[in-house]
Amino acid sequence: MTLNELKTGETGIIVKIHGHGAFRKRVIEMGFTKGRKITALNSAPLKDPVKYTLMGYEVSLRRSEAALIETIPVADDLQTDDINQIKTISEETAGVISEFKGRSHTINVVLIGNPNCGKTSLFNIASGAMEHVGNYSGVTVDSKTGHFKHGDYNFNIIDLPGTYSLSAYSPEELYVRRYLRDENPDIIVNVVDASNLERNLYLTTELIDMDRPMVIALNMFDELKNSGAAFDYETFGKMIGVPVVPTVSRTGQGVDRLFDTIIDIYERREKTVRHVHVSLGNDIETAMTEVKDLIKGDPTAGLHFSPRYLAIKLFERDKETESTLRHVKNYDTIIATRDEAVKKVEMLHGEDISSMIANEKYGFIAGALAETLDRPDKDSRSSTRVIDMLVTSPLFGFPIFFVIMLFIFWTTFYIGAYPGEWIESGIAVLADLVRGNMPDGPLKDLIANGILGGVGGVIVFLPNILILFFFISFMEDSGYMSRAAFIMDRVMHKIGLHGKSFIPLVMGFGCNVPAVTASRAIESKSSRIITVLINPFMSCSARLPVYVLLIGTFFEAHAALVFFSLYATGIFVAVVTARMLRRFLFKKDETPFVMELPPYRLPTLKSCLRHMWAKGKQYLKKMGGIILFASIIVWALNYFPSDRHELAEGERIAETDEIDAQHDSYLEMIGKTINPVLKPIGVEWRGTVALVAGIPAKEIVVSTLGVLYTGNDEVSDHALSARLTQVSPATGKPDFTPASALAFMVFVLLYCPCIATVIAITKETGKLKYGAFSVLYNTAVAWICAFVVYQIALWL
Ligand code: GDP
Ligand code: MG
Q: What's the distance, CA 294 to chain centroid?
């Protein structure tokens, strides 16, 4: 009987717990373990939740949850909390113990696999039955049950019809799904034809999503061996979190070990068991989170299957799953959220979501096999294989990768500069129009210097950023990004990370915020936290305007070299930080992960442009929002107190340090107060102000410089770079020199991440302390590095 059938005051002993992994884990942590005595406290038929006592304390469970816990009724005067602790068997306990043993030592296993993979042969050899074995598929939609004893345990084994997947298209598939939902088998045996791994493992990924106890019978192992292939199935099993046992069910080889392993899983002794997420790619994963959370929020929804599985099935518009969830309270919200999320992803990729999910799953399988399966392939000439042979080869992999990277950076900076110049001259024309046609006063100053100087100074870099985003989208969509991660795996191991961390790090060159979010795909917690924390050192596109401005001003002749060195410095600091974090904060973790290898596809121009635009839109939003806002604030702090303008006009010495403090703008006061801290790295007060103003978003650094170094009317050239090199009346020198420009760029590269990134870090790690760490640590590192750079540059 199940726990919900206990009446008030009745006592039972727990025999089994069904449901998906997360549910089982939670109840077991609450104390529901095999052999525990439990008493129902109040259990009226309509009462929900129901209260129970367990080891002397009260717990309450929903009726639907209690229905997943199997018990045997006992007299409530049984003198123990846990039947496993009874040593002396008295007459009254003997019956209970033997029933408990009988029930808890009965394991129900179900065979699931593709047609023709050897399920029935396995069924026959294990149970001694003589069922019909045929080398064809789809004979009957039915199940057969067999019984046998193995070791101390009784097995009920069920042979189900073969299926290629768990979509509800064919009667076989529907049958298998309903069976899993209604019958609660203890262990799923996924029979896999070893000679045809790719196709067979697709079903496996769907079973993994369900998160139910499972083992893989790697059947036809003889054929795999005969083909000359070598398969590291143990590592493979560790990667996917499912134990793998090779079998030859025609002869019975490996079958004993299979059932030993099943017992170990059943008794929770098997170390390999772990729930992994078959990653569906960033866009789908992000879109799915909301739906998953809604399902999780309703306790009656996801008990038999994990909320993740249900969410994936809903995304595939699976009718069967929709109808099982129809009774759920917030069903309409779930469906509406799903529809919107799916529409968004399909729009973005211009592809049907089911085939996207299937592609990602095949990519997961290909990645797992690429690391574990070594087959002497002569037969396969698929283009993906050929390209992969080259692109992931130890010899050519890296050079190809670096050439691609160089090409991307070159295009971003050099080609992007042309449209950038057009925008720049457009803004200069606008500013001149304003200067020439508006009456003098704060409003004219605000528009010409505050808004056009600030926002205009940043919008110039939109082309560079769009180009960079275009390439990142292209690499993601074509499948090359995964290969890059694959070849970087070994390198990443050297810094205690995994190849999977590589993609978020490259994405960081675009923007750290989505990159931090993308780290979610990394299963190991410590690797995830390290990846998140070092991500801000990947020089994001918001810092690009600073480099373009200062490099263009001071290092025109060696632009590429300086660009490259800055990015390299960021990477170097990231590497050092990662190694330190690994050594001092997180112990090594060696769990192997699957690196997905989706098939190559030539991305359509449309989808790349769409992706690029999705990212570029955020940039423009930032422009109209926080950057505009910050520019106005900076302008106002610089403009007021306004009485200084008349004074300054009259005396022309306003900019000297000796002048009475009241003549300073607020901004000057702020800048000069903090400036001593940054003086050792060669930054003057305007630079200091720009750095402080840039904390909300790094683009503001340039927009602030744009506001502060406004063209006074004598300078005909409005370009910011010309204004930067002017001699400051206060010091008699230009504020920026090559040395200080270099130090300034290093500081901007490394110092505290923008607010959006800090929020993302805090959200992804779940701890405020990591957000705080990145603010403090990064700023300290930035100061030290900038100081060293400045001193060396001065000395040279
Ligand atoms: P089912 O459709 O999954 O039930 O598969 P069957 O049990 O009917 O087996 C399909 C075919 O594969 C039969 O011809 C079996 O003899 C053969 N077969 C089953 N297991 C093995 C194995 O481990 N090795 C080899 N070489 N053949 C097998
Ligand atoms: Mg069969």
A: 19
Cβ proximity of 38 and 52 under 8 Å = yes
pLDDT number for residue 378: 52
Among 208, 171, 206, 191, CA closest to 255: 191
Residue to mutate (ligand 1; options 116, 117, 121, 196; most atoms within 8 A of CB): 121
Tell me the CA–centroid distance for residue 135 and ligand 1, in Å.
Answer: 7
273 within 8 A of 243, measured Cβ to Cβ: yes
Taking the centre of ligand 1 as the mean of its atom positions, its distance from the CA of residue 257, in whole angstroms, is 19
Whether omega before 49 lies within 30 degrees of 0, making that bond cis, reads yes
Ligand nearest to the CA of 142: 2
Please enumerate in sequence order all residues whose Cβ is within 8 A of that of 639, keeping only pairs 6 or more positions apart, or say none: 442, 445, 446, 450, 645, 665
Pocket of ligand 1 (CB under 6 A): 113, 115-121, 133-135, 162, 219-220, 222-223, 248-250
- Which two three-digit tokens encode residue 788? 């060293």
156-169 pLDDT, tens digit each: 999 988 888 888 67
C-beta of residue 96 within 8 angstroms of C-beta of residue 13: yes
Cα separation values, 604 from 129, 462, 472, 599, Å: 55, 22, 14, 15
What atom in ligand 1 is closest to the CA of residue 134? Answer: 8
Task: Locate 426 and state its tokens.
Answer: 């457009």
Q: Residue with the nearest Cα to atom 12 of ligand 1?
A: 118
Comparing C-alpha atoms, which of 306, 310, 299, 302 is closest to residue 337? 310
pTM for this prediction: 0.72
Beta-strand runs (E) in 502-655 = none
d(CA 636, CA 462): 26
pLDDT in tens, 244-266: 999 999 899 999 999 999 999 99
Integer Cα distance of 299 and 19 in angstroms: 13
Task: With residue 154 as reference, give the H or E element that holds it.
Answer: strand 153-159
Ligand 1 centroid from CA 510, angstroms: 51
Query: If you measure from the C-alpha of residue 249 to the centroid of ligand 1, how many angstroms do you get, rounded to a whole number?
Result: 7
DSSP sequence for 180-211? HHHH--SEEEEEEEGGGHHHHHHHHHHHHHHT
Angle at the Cα of 272 (from 210 to 362), degrees rounded to 5? 50
Which among 659, 460, 452 has a CA at the least distance from the CA of 548? 460
Alpha-carbon span 221 to 228, nearest angstrom: 11
Which of 249, 251, 258 to mutate for ligand 1's pocket (most ligand atoms within 8 Å of CB)? 249
Instruction: Give first-to-last CA distance, the chain, whole Å.
Output: 84
CA torsion sign for 33, 34, 35, 37 is positive
Distance CA 555, CA 535 (A): 27
pLDDT tens-digit map of 79-121: 777 777 777 667 667 778 888 888 889 999 999 998 889 898 8
